[in-house]
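Cross-posting from the modeling subforum.

Setting up a comparison between two proteins and wanted a second pair of eyes on the formatting. Protein 1 (sequence, then structure tokens):
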Amino acid sequence: MKSALDLGIATRCRDLQSFSDVPSDLEPYTQFEAEIDFKTVFVRQVLQEYSEALCKRASRCLLNQVVVCTSRWTEGMDSLLRLLRAQHSPVVLFSSFAEAAVYARVPTFVRYVDPKARDAALLVVCAMFQPLVLVLSSTWKGAQRIYDQFKLLTQDSKIPKCGVLYAGGSEAGKEVQLVNGVDVLIATPLCLLRVMHKYDHLVVNLKRCCHLVLDDGERLIEEFTEEVKLLEGSRGRKAVVCTSSHESALKVHRLLQSESIFALLLHDGLPMVSVRGVANEWAAPHKDTCAPVLVAQDNILSWAGIRDAAVLVHYDVPELSRFNFGFRFSCLAERMRSFDAKGDSDPRDSPLAHLILTRDNAHLSVQLAEFLTRVGAKVPPAFEQLANEELQRRACNPERPLCAHLKSFGRCLAPPTTSGTACRDRHGVVAALDRPRGWRHLPTSGEVRIFVTKMVDATYFYAWVLEHWDPAADPTAGKGGAAVVHTEFQEAMLEMNAYFAVPGGDRHIGLGENESPVVGGVYAVEVDADQFHRVQVVSVMPESGGVACSSLRAEVFHMDHGGSSKVALRRLLRLPERLARLPPFAVEVFCCRVQPQDRDLEWTFQAECTSHSLVTEKELVGKVVLCLGNTLWLDPLVKRTYLDRSG
């Protein structure tokens, strides 16, 4: 057989080399004179010089491939293929293709497939292993959450297969999984497009995709779609007026009756028999000139089963329940046109909704204005002005902290919530809050040398200011300016350690069983042997399973190191007034001009781990571009390493 066959075998399966009963004269590596370039080929090509035979095709995913190249087809080839099938069944079982091809010059077997034909066939073959379901999420956390839930639901089954793609380190090394095939692919939009274009649609394409799911569809449509067209309602006949209280329902009903309008009434004071009677009266046929108007209270509306109203009037907006406001629209269900409906609908049958508002509803104007915009309704100019005034009031609300996204990225990136507000934090600078007198010592320009004590995320740290250079303060000091060394923290720590080093007394005794700390008060906590931190009490909460005062725990903020923790009340130690009044020495630091990839909202774990290894407990140097209160924005922020002097 060796004289008749010039044989070469290339495979990725280690089992091909693990059998001892293969004749030594069939050792494939001895048949090549030149260096072998082992590749997996996924395509058959029929030309005049070729004689191909499909050996095996399984329904499993493509994992391996056996390619047999011969100078001509002989009778011994059949026995050889039987030998391969018997000896290397793992390769055949887990392969979609195993090929035998005849070619004149075996040492150049890697060139027997034309590149253009190979690429064309790859598109056909790869489409067989592409996702059936594509789930798009606007953030990497949303994609990972869906993936975890999917794996939890399918943990007892090998199919369907699921994969996840998002930026920030997760997409690395996913090519093998995608080539092997996934049934459900969860990804962020920009990451998916990047992978598709990177591999020219060979690793991922959507030719087999049957279902597209949009998670967090509001933000996806807002961020990644230019236009959204929504249907607008028109006039109908039957009308429902919804109110949130019993008194409002009675008031509206009396008003309609005084105008000689045929009105029905539903409220929570009616017995069930009366509710059924009103529902039957509504369902009875009426003339167009005397169509009924139903005044219904929210908590009894579901019992009436009204679904064919043509006009919906919101007399007020329920403040404590978003469900009630949404359920009101079920009255229009039978008149709502399906997106699958063919042809033009009669405008007279389309539903119509009205919303009655006054300046007393200013606190709801922002949510409602956004809701009206999303459903394609026109926002009246007066109502739009009321919503803008409410937004300005919220932007400078002194009771809310400054938005974290605004501090990190210069703009709020929070997605819209179900209540309509993207973010409840403050988005405007208040001088009394953001520039208090207690922080006048922080530098507003020049360069600073900091020591990072706590990392919050990839660009947000807590640090000590060790040194400051400000050329504007002293132009005669040279290019770098006069250096100002900050030793306030070290002096305060020495004083606090000396205070607790005195033996006796009640300095090392925490709060008693019947004592409760003052929220906002400053105390000390011993975090290690003879090592104390100043902490500020944020809140007091009971320990899980405990109700007594001894089971209470306090959430505290470490003023001089950054970060929060929960401690037992007995660990809180009193401080002298001078130490308690000192400002926090841990300064918030933001690194400018850095943002998560693919317009995401939060940093991935890989990005945070990388940042942690680069900056935590390191000395960095940065240029101050902005200072607000206890916060510094630095650009650039670098780590300086000085080379040793060589002789």
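Protein 2 (same layout):
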Amino acid sequence: ASHDYLPLVQLQQAQGPFQLTESFSEVVQIPLDRLHRASPYASHRASLSPMSPGARSSPEAGPCCEEGEEAVSGQDVGPEDLESASWATAVALAWLEHRCAGFFEEWELVAAKADAWLQAQRLPEGVDVGCLKGAARHLFLLLRHWDENIKLNMLCYNPNNV
């Protein structure tokens, strides 16, 4: 039995959330910049290097969040911390569903705790839990299609044609 969800479980904080850190990025095997780019929060996309002016309006991001909104948070967490923790928590839930579905009974309580934390947060206006979860699921669909395209290109690649 594969227990590749255990490293993620170890990153869960006592109250239930996950943090958007390099460690989290490594465990879910998604580069931190890609996590920021796919986030529904404008502040995450704005934090990307100014390599592309389109970083603020990334097509990967969901349409549910408005730029310039002030976050209202509970539990003495700053707005950016709440955005990062809520996005990481939504990604963690989607990762468990996509990568570890066969072990649902083993991580069910971890997910319930994360979901309860997420539901209890006062998220910024224009964002709700459904939006976050939808954006996280969308991220995994994009990644899966990207992986399938890479594999297809590898199958079709013939060095003699170059």
